Amino acid sequence: MLDVEQVPESDRETSKERADRNFTELLQGARVAVTGVQVLFAFLLTVPFSQEFVKLREFDRWLFYVALVSAAIASICYIAPANQHRMLFRQGLKEKLVRRSNYYGIAGALALGLSMTAATMLVVDFLFHSTLALVTAGGLALLVVWAWFGQPAINRLSRSDDVPTREQEEGRRGDPHRTE
Predict the structure, then answer these.
(1) CA of 111: how far to CAs of 11, 62, 103, 119, 145, in Å?
(2) For 161, which DSSP code?
(3) What's the CA angle centered on 146, arms 143 and 151, to 5 degrees?
């Protein structure tokens, strides 16, 4: 097991420093996603004004609704951490904000995956009027679930017991002779 004395002083960080670093990392991740969400959302907002929109069947209109609303939810979730940071500036709530922002990121990813899947299904259904739309959407949904959630969940579950978590490291810092 890793002893806290083996960790160089330059690699140790306070809980405040860790919260700041974690929040910065969360915002960087959100920046990657928010651009795609904004482009998708903007595109979806223009679709009803095209001449072809009136040709959509009721099922496709519902797909559009799901895609549009889930893109809006994703936008809200990805923007929330930055806005909440502004509202809670210097209130000493960074750790709470980091945890909450992580949940918003997960919710935003779920909403984005749903929006992308519904929008793709809508387009494929409009073009081909076939089960190809359902198969394509199902494949995309499986890919989103695997790449964004399934694979990371497996990594979390199979994490080696020899690698201490941050919480375990914090516990050892308080008691350098602790062995668990």
Answers:
(1) 36, 16, 12, 12, 12
(2) T
(3) 150
Q: d(Cα 8, Cα 122) in Å, to the nearest integer?
A: 54
132: pLDDT strictly greater than 80: yes
Contact 63, 44 (CB under 8 A): no
* Residue 150 is assigned to a structural domain of this protein: yes
37 touches 71 (CB < 8 A) = yes
Give me the number of domains the chain comprises: 1
- What does the block give as tokens for 53? 């929109």
18 in any annotated domain: yes
Report yes or no on 164 lying in a domain.
yes
- Mean pLDDT (the chain, rounded): 83
Helical spans, DSSP H, in the chain: 15-46, 58-87, 94-128, 132-144, 151-157, 166-174
- Position 129 scores a pLDDT of 79
C-alpha torsion sign, points 83, 89, 93, 94: positive
Overall pTM surpassing 0.85 (yes/no): no
Distances (CA, A) of 112 to 34, 57, 64, 132: 10, 24, 14, 21
Torsion of CA 57, 61, 67, 70, to 10 degrees: -150
Which token pair is 68? 């549009």
